[in-house]
Amino acid sequence: NRGKADVWFGNLLGAIGAGDNRFTAAKEWGSYASPLINKIFNDAEHAARLTDAEKRRLAEWVDLNATYYGDYASNYAYNPNGRSPLSQADLEAIGDCTGGKSAWDNNWRENRTMPIYFDNPEKSPVLKGLTGTNYDSALSLITKGHKQLKADPDVDWAGVAAMPGNPDAVPDRQYARRATDQWRLDKVLMRNAIEAANRKAIAEGRKRYDNLLDPDPANYLPEWPDSAAQPYPGR
């Protein structure tokens, strides 16, 4: 990625971030500039492992900015980055153990791997060099996130039978979408159905009215889910 990436994951995938105000020239971003894509297409050891269709799919994924989740719903929408099983206070406490925020924060401009492994807390890079109380406290907080994800998985845990890298850690249950997220998705589906019906009515020369003037109960959403009934207020 232009030889200087804002985001790196093991130096295999770069993505443009904020800060550079010049125009991006053709082929200097995306799959053309991706070390990962170059490896799976041209490296003798890796090129034969995937079909042409699988390689194209990966290239398209990179060109779409390497979307990880594919779903806006999140069971931790009000935690840092909208996905963290730990609160901001928990993450700041880890920072205190490591001597400052820069030692632990998942900063999108840092050229390094993720500092915290919720799948296997003891192997978290952020623990490197820590001893005594600092090590114990930081590990305890990361383990807290590990347990939280086991008890209440997020969208990327759907169908996962065990944590990657830690096969003994079996999730307590599968991912279940929050009521508020389900409400939003139901609204999108409902509005799409209404729009399709409106267009059909126009094509057939009929009149059709929305909501209050339309007696069809299918055009009404249920009340917003009661946040007090949710495990996490405001979700």
Structural class: mainly alpha
Strand content: under 5%
Tally the beta strands: 2
Average pLDDT level: 77
Helix content: 25-40%
Low-confidence stretches: 1-10, 106-112, 227-235
Rg is 23 Å
Q: What is the spatial order of strands in the main beta sheet?
A: 1-2
Shape: extended
Helix segment tally:
6
Structure at a glance:
The protein has 235 residues and is mostly helical. The protein is built from six helices and two strands; from the N terminus they run E-E-H-H-H-H-H-H. 34% of the residues lie in helices and 2% in strands.
Q: Please, could you describe this protein's structure?
A:
- By secondary structure, this protein is mainly alpha-helical.
- Helices cover 34% and strands 2% of the residues.
- Strands 1-2 form a two-stranded antiparallel sheet.
- Strand 1 and strand 2 form a beta hairpin.
- The chain is extended, with a radius of gyration of 23 Å.
- The protein starts with 6 loop residues before the first strand and ends in a 32-residue tail after the last helix.
